# Entry
Amino acid sequence: MNAERLMLIILAPVISEKSTMVGDLNNQVPFRVLADATKPEIKAAAELMFGKKVVGVQVTNVKGKAKRHGRFMGRRRDWKKAYVCFEPGTEINFVGAEA
# Structure
């Protein structure tokens, strides 16, 4: 797999109450990923970016919400979420520098 493509696959971590709960229970971290990314690509990208062993990947497509803009209806774009399961005992730190 191309290293340049792998660096573009993971867009951002999904940070919310639900994702924190999932991370604590299942040792998973949810990420927003490219819409055309596959499970093997997401696994390779996570291992490349974080240097940790990935046990499994679960993927879900999130439908965009319908929103109003004045009197016109619009839609947010659809996106893909990936739950990446790291080895037990592995901790991922999203802060660049530690104090």
